Amino acid sequence: MRRIEEADDPRRRLLIRALAAGFFSGSLAGREALAQALGTTPAALPPGRSIYRIDGQVVVDGQPATLDTRIGGNSTVETLAASEVVYAVGESAFIQRSESRVTLAAVERDSMVVAGLNLLTGKILSVFPSGKAVRLATKNATIGIRGTGVYMENDPEQTYFCTCYGISDVVANDDPTSQETVAATHHDKPLYILTGAPAGENIRAAPFINHTDQELMLIETLVGRQPPFVFPSEDYGGPRKDY
User: Is 161 helix (H, G, I), strand (E, B) or coil?
Assistant: First the structure.
């Protein structure tokens, strides 16, 4: 079984370096590096466009996806091995990692307002609009969020969950006495949510792993927002994974 602490593939490392160069540098070289890595400089997606980038094989609602594929508020999105997709639905945006399966739930039929997300397998980084309640689910956890950026990894033995910013109410599915509310401004309290530990002990502190502020900035940009933190890359000393 692949451990969730393992580093992602080298393509993601190059992407993160390019994002840092483009977002935190006003130089022409920074913008060119970012455009070369991503194919275009990040900007809000135009109306009717869902997918910003596809890397590898991605399936949406049972069909192979292209850049023209529309993802709706009730879609199922699956990435195959060595694949990744960056996409937006309404005012919510996502980076879905390799070998991940996600089902979305809209507030009503044909709506583009995401009210729920079920991470069946894999890993996903998500941002949601302020003031909108969203229910997140994995095998191990049920999480209510309000206006947050979050990162999740679903493992058969545990869920990794980071409230990057915003408020999250976290409950272990098999132990309602294990619950926690996290109010975070900058990855303040990542958690593991377990199954099978003694009552009241199925939520535990976790390290910061496998996602970056640059990636959050990218997907917030796709829906016309910025994260609630701004920093120059050379001065950044907060938590992130080093490669």
Answer: strand
